[in-house]
Write a structure and sequence with these properties.
The complex is a heterodimer. By secondary structure, chain A is α/β, with parallel strands linked by helices. Chain A has two domains: 110 residues, Elongation Factor Tu (Ef-tu), domain 3 (Beta Barrel); 131 residues, 3-Layer(aba) Sandwich (Rossmann fold). Helix content of chain A is 20%, strand content 29%. In chain A, strands 10-9-8-7-11-12-15 form a seven-stranded mixed beta sheet, with helices on both faces. Chain B is α+β, with helices and mostly antiparallel strands. Chain B has two domains: 182 residues, no CATH class; 129 residues, no CATH class. In chain B, the strands form two sheets. An eight-stranded mixed beta sheet of chain B has the order 3-2-6-7-8-9-1-10, sandwiched between helices. In chain B, strands 5-4-12-11 form a four-stranded antiparallel beta sheet, with no helix packed on it. In chain B, helix 7 runs antiparallel to helix 10. Classes of the chains: A alpha/beta, B alpha+beta. At the A-B interface, helix 1, strand 4, helix 3 and strand 13 of A face strand 4, strand 5, helix 4, strand 11 and strand 12 of B.
Chain lengths: 290, 344
C-alpha cells in the first residue's frame, strides 16, 4: 500500500479527491427522541472546522468506518458554524452502526452537497416552514438561519406536527420559540395521552387556521413523510401558491453525493446535484418524485 | 488534424514499436466471441472483430475498484494502485470511443472523479473503423464517427490504414516509428470518402432519435413499460455490457480480526431491486416496470436534458446480452409506432 506521503502530493486521487472523507469527532450525542438522536460533530482538523460552510438544506455524506457511507441532511444552521449537527433516525445498517458509537469516536464527513434552499430568492419574502415527524431535521437549518438573519425576512411561520409530545424533535428549543413575537411558531401533536402538552392538538394541516399566509409573497419549505406532502401540498395549492414557491426536501439512496453513482436519479435529475431541494413544479415534471 | 497513412504490412511493426508507450491490449477471440485483453503476442489481436463482450469502460471504471483503505488513527487513505499503469487500447471502435467521451463528461464537471481521470490520462486509445452488422445502430445515435477522444484512429482503406492523429501522444507514437507513416494524397482521401459512403449504406437498423425526449414524455404512462417489466429479469446484463452505463455501488469491508478495512466501488445497475432502496425500507422503484422504464428514460431522454444527446451509442451489446430478448431498437420503434409512420 502506498501511504499518502510516499506519492506526490499533487496526485489528484490524493490531493483533490471529492470522495475523501475527513475525520470528525462526535462531540455530543443528544437523545432527543427514542432512536432519533442528535449527533454533534467537529472536524479533527481545525482548519476544516473553521472553513466548512453550507447552505440550509444541504447534506453531507457521513462515513461510519467499516459500515459504509450515507447522505444525512445538516440540521445546524450555517449561522452557527464550527460544529455540525445531524439528526439521524436509527433505521438501517449504517445508522445502526452510528448508534453503536460513543462520544469522542470518529466518523468521516465529506460535503456539503446538494443545492440547498434558494436563499437568494427567499430573502425579502415571507417564509413558511411546514414539517411533520423527521421532516424537521433539514428544516431546522433553515429555521435558525432565518431567525439568526431575522432582518432579511418578512413574516416567518413554522408549522410542525408530531404524533405525541415525546415524538417531537427539538421539542425544548421549539417550544421556547412559541413565545417569541418575531415568529409564528405553531406546534401540534396528534394526541397527548400524558395531558402535559400546552400547544395545539390535531393534524398538521389544521395549523393553517392559526396562520396568516400571503401566498404571493411566501416561500413554503415542506418536509416530512408522504402523508405530509399530500395534505400540505393540497392546502398550499388551495391557497394558490405559485408552484415554484413550494420547496420540498427529498430523500434518495446515494453512494456518491456528487452526481456519479446514479442511485438518486429521479427522471432526468439527480437528487444530489439538482436537489435535494426541489420545487413542486419540478415534482409535476418528474413523475417519480413524490 | 494530422492525417497519415500506414501500409497494412507495416502494422505489425507499428504494434511492436508502440509498446514502448504502454502495455498493449486489444480484442482477442475467446469462445467464439471477443474480449479486450492484454496481448501476449500481436498475432492474437483480432482487429476485424464485431464487438467485444464488455466495452472498454472496464479499463476506466473497473468492475471492482478499491477507493480507500481505512486504518483506525489514519482515517481513509486513498488507494492509488494501478492508476498510473500505462496501457494502450488497440482497436477500439468509433461507438466505444464515443461512449468513453460520454463517460468523460459524467466523470468530469464540478466534482471530477480522480480515479477515472487518472486512468483516462494513462490509457491511450488507438481506434479502428468497422463495418456495421445487423445489430449496429451507431449511425442513428450519431456515434458511427468520432472526431476526438482517441490518440490515433485507423481507417481501413484497402492496402493501407488512414490514420487520424488525435493527440500529441498519438503524434509521438507516429514519430517513434521513424518513417512508417506516409502523407496521404487526394486520391487516397477519395478512398476514405468511398469507404465512408459504403459504411453508411451497410446499416440495416435505423432509429429516429430527433424528438425522442418528447415521445418519452408522452409515453411515460404507456403499457409498454408494464409489458417490459413482466419480461425483464432484472439481471442487469444490459447495464454491465453497456459502454455508457456508469452506475456504481460502494461497499465497506472490514478485515477479519481488525478494525481496518477498505471501501470498494462495484458496477451496479438501475435494474437491480435495491437500486433506489433507502435505509428505512422505502423503495422508490420497487417494481421492475418502473426500473426498466427508468433505464430507458435516463438513457434516451434524461441524458439529452443533461448533456444534449442520448447516452446510448448504438453498439448493440444490450440486444445480444439480454436473456429475454428485450431490444432497444424495437422498444423505441414501438414507442414511436413506426408502423404507422409513412416515412419508414
Amino acid at each position: 500500500m502506498l501511504l499518502a506521503d510516499e506519492v506526490s502530493s499533487h496526485h489528484p486521487v490524493l490531493s483533490d479527491n471529492p470522495y475523501q472523507p475527513h475525520m470528525a469527532r462526535i462531540v455530543r450525542i443528544y437523545k432527543m427522541v427514542e432512536n432519533n438522536h442528535l449527533f454533534t460533530l467537529r472536524f479533527l482538523e481545525d482548519h476544516l472546522a473553521h472553513s466548512f460552510r453550507h447552505q440550509p438544506g444541504q447534506f453531507i455524506m457521513l462515513s461510519i468506518p467499516g459500515a459504509g457511507e450515507m447522505p444525512i441532511s445538516i440540521s445546524s444552521s450555517p449561522s452557527r458554524p464550527e460544529v455540525l449537527e445531524l439528526c439521524v433516525r436509527r433505521v438501517g445498517r449504517v445508522t445502526n452502526a452510528l448508534y453503536r458509537l460513543r462520544t469522542n469516536d470518529v466518523v468521516g464527513v465529506r460535503g456539503p452537497y446538494g443545492n440547498g434552499y434558494p436563499m437568494q430568492e427567499i430573502i425579502g419574502n415571507d417564509l413558511l416552514l411546514a414539517a411533520g415527524g423527521l421532516g424537521m431535521a433539514p428544516l431546522r437549518s433553515l429555521l435558525w438561519y432565518a431567525l439568526d438573519h431575522r432582518d432579511k425576512f418578512n413574516n416567518i411561520t413554522l408549522m410542525y406536527g408530531a404524533k405525541r409530545p415525546e415524538d417531537m424533535l427539538f421539542r425544548e428549543e421549539l417550544t421556547a420559540l412559541v413565545d417569541r413575537t418575531d415568529i409564528n411558531c405553531l406546534l401540534t401533536v396528534d394526541a397527548d395521552p400524558s395531558a402535559t402538552w400546552k400547544n395545539h392538538i390535531g393534524r398538521l394541516p389544521s395549523l393553517f387556521d392559526h396562520a396568516k399566509i400571503d401566498p404571493m409573497r411566501t416561500y413554503a419549505a415542506v418536509c416530512g413523510p408522504p402523508v405530509v406532502y399530500k395534505f400540505i401540498l393540497q392546502r398550499l395549492l388551495e391557497l394558490s401558491f405559485p408552484k415554484n414557491h413550494i420547496l420540498m426536501s427529498l430523500e434518495r439512496r446515494m453512494k456518491c453525493g456528487i452526481g456519479k453513482c446514479g442511485h438518486c436519479g429521479i427522471g432526468y435529475k439527480y437528487t444530489c446535484l439538482q436537489g435535494p431541494i426541489f420545487t413542486y413544479w419540478d415534482a409535476i415534471n418528474l413523475p417519480e418524485m413524490i | 488534424m494530422k492525417i497519415l497513412k500506414l501500409p497494412k504490412e507495416k502494422l505489425d511493426l507499428f504494434a511492436s514499436v508502440v509498446q514502448q508507450f504502454g502495455e498493449l491490449h486489444a480484442p482477442v477471440e475467446q469462445d467464439g466471441r471477443y474480449v479486450f485483453k492484454r496481448l501476449t503476442r500481436w498475432s492474437d489481436a483480432r482487429l476485424e472483430y464485431d464487438r467485444t463482450i464488455l466495452p472498454p469502460k472496464k479499463y476506466f471504471l473497473p468492475p471492482r475498484e478499491a477507493l480507500f483503505r481505512y486504518r483506525p488513527g489514519e482515517g481513509f487513505v486513498p488507494n492509488t494502485d494501478g492508476l498510473d499503469q500505462r496501457i494502450i487500447l488497440f482497436g477500439v471502435h468509433a461507438c466505444d470511443v464515443y461512449a468513453i467521451n460520454i463517460l468523460d463528461r459524467v466523470f468530469a464537471g464540478k466534482y471530477k472523479d480522480p480515479y477515472y481521470q487518472a486512468r483516462r490520462k494513462n490509457i491511450a486509445i488507438i481506434g479502428i473503423d468497422c463495418l456495421p452488422d445487423k445489430q449496429c445502430f451507431c449511425r442513428s445515435m450519431r456515434a458511427d464517427f468520432v472526431d476526438h477522444g482517441f490518440d490515433l484512429f485507423f481507417y481501413d482503406t484497402g492496402d493501407y490504414y488512414q490514420a487520424l492523429v488525435g493527440t500529441a501522444l498519438g503524434d509521438d507514437m507516429v514519430l517513434a516509428t521513424g518513417n512508417l507513416f506516409e502523407p496521404v494524397d487526394a486520391a487516397e482521401i477519395d478512398d476514405y470518402k468511398r469507404r465512408s459512403w459504403n459504411k453508411r449504406r451497410a446499416f440495416q437498423v435505423d432509429v429516429e432519435i430527433r424528438d425522442l425526449p418528447e415521445i418519452f414524455e408522452m409515453e411515460y404512462q404507456s403499457e409498454i413499460w408494464d409489458e417490459l417489466g413482466e419480461k425483464c429479469l432484472s439481471c442487469g446484463s444490459c447495464s454491465m455490457v453497456c459502454p455508457t452505463c456508469y452506475c456504481y455501488d460502494v461497499a465497506d469491508d472490514v478485515e477479519l480480526g481488525s478494525r481496518a478495512g477498505k471501501r470498494t466501488r462495484l458496477w451496479d445497475s438501475c435494474l437491480f431491486a435495491s437500486h433506489a432502496l433507502v435505509g428505512s425500507g422505502e423503495n422508490f422503484r420497487g417494481s421492475r416496470s418502473s426500473r426498466i422504464k427508468y433505464r430507458f428514460y435516463h438513457k434516451q431522454r434524461g441524458f439529452v436534458a443533461e448533456y444534449g444527446r442520448p447516452s446510448c451509442v448504438g453498439c448493440g451489446r444490450c440486444v445480444s446480452a439480454c436473456p429475454v430478448h428485450i431490444d432497444v431498437v424495437q422498444v423505441i420503434d414501438r414507442l414511436r409506432r413506426v408502423e404507422d409512420v409513412a416515412s419508414r
